[in-house]
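Quick question: what would this complex look like in 3D?
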Amino acid sequence: MTFETRTEVRFAHVDAAGIVFYPRYFEMLNAAVEDWCAQALGVDFRTMHVERRIGVPTVKLHVDFLSPSALGDRLTITLRTREIGRASCRLAVSFAGDGRERLKAEVTLVCMDIDAQRAIPWPDDMRARMVEGLVPAE
Amino acid sequence: MTFETRTEVRFAHVDAAGIVFYPRYFEMLNAAVEDWCAQALGVDFRTMHVERRIGVPTVKLHVDFLSPSALGDRLTITLRTREIGRASCRLAVSFAGDGRERLKAEVTLVCMDIDAQRAIPWPDDMRARMVEGLVPAE
Amino acid sequence: MTFETRTEVRFAHVDAAGIVFYPRYFEMLNAAVEDWCAQALGVDFRTMHVERRIGVPTVKLHVDFLSPSALGDRLTITLRTREIGRASCRLAVSFAGDGRERLKAEVTLVCMDIDAQRAIPWPDDMRARMVEGLVPAE
Amino acid sequence: MTFETRTEVRFAHVDAAGIVFYPRYFEMLNAAVEDWCAQALGVDFRTMHVERRIGVPTVKLHVDFLSPSALGDRLTITLRTREIGRASCRLAVSFAGDGRERLKAEVTLVCMDIDAQRAIPWPDDMRARMVEGLVPAE
């Protein structure tokens, strides 16, 4: 199962050349992970962080920037869960718009106990939903 | 006539205390001005900047931060055009959510020729739409 | 007594027109307040936030953007303490470079108990240093 | 030859858990690339972008986030040129502080003609300085 969310390139995202400044892609990517947690895993970021005291920091990132995105571009961000570990998961992410892929990324997230500042196994509810959505690489 | 747009407090917006870091409100405010230009004035930011070479930089800003916003808060941003000058306009802006106002601001924008880097009179089409939406202060 | 700190306009700060996107000025301003707390008031932000659980949120902001700043500009940020209240203070701030003022601002900060999320009187050590540096408006 | 530059974790960089929000690391990394261009390659970003109309967009990024960085941490960013192509280069980057590595990254930059929006060979002056600083992987 593939998770999709949408975003738009805002003035705040572009650089002096009028294209997305790459750190802004990661703000968009983080927002996509928030949407995925809320909509696909059933736990919104506020509940996760504030009530359950769980964070999902990014520990590894491989990104290929394939083509630039300009002010006003409407992008679809696609997330596929490729692997689920005891305390981590690996997502394949793609940004695309107008039939052109802008970037593809592999992102490894870890499930963290915010107060103890250490990795913990995924809670059962989150793991169950993640397993449902698993899309092993072709 | 009042222009409204919506936003959500994302992880990228909050600080170590879990509430919106105030520079992020201005990223949200700028996005609201983009929505207002596109939807109320009929000229999206890409067309305005790239094709027509017009910018609308902020030259004056008065802001009262009334109450904090936390991760996940859904906010409505309201813009009212208070005054229209030859080459500028003054907007009254409010951010609110859950029946609580978060900030109110007065924002003065100037119409700028990007290449010449100087103020120019509003183009007729933008001025006409702005005049339609004028809401003088009570 | 006037507090000064320096900054440089980075690629991350500029917009499609090659000049500072105004929300980025507030990131620079916040960094200047951090420097002021550490160097003029004797309490760095980490100690203040993490150990003493005090925050200094901005509650009011008046800004005039006087002239644009471009990539590579080296700016001096000047802070003057204009008024000290029981739980607040008002600062006059100026950004300048190459003999040209870029913006001037009035900023009101409040002393906040982070855990209780309410305003508290300035701690004696911070107030004493603030009083030493007081520069009432001419 | 190794290029080093320093940065400090600011309030603007940290998230609700009090540690650096990872997109902010890339703002720091971009600033380090600016320092490297100005100090090691002899071409500051303003001259490069505005006068020579050359950009150096990031086209590939591999990052391992090894340990978190907190508000106030002083970090040293190290850049080593690993490979120089006709129109690209690969840098090995490390962020460290207090004897602890925070992240390591491999970054591929491309030399771009901003107006034509296409890759071009490195100008001779930049290539010569890059070659001097080459540090092939151990």
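Answer marked as accepted. The CA atoms of residues 36 and 86 of chain A lie 19 Å apart.
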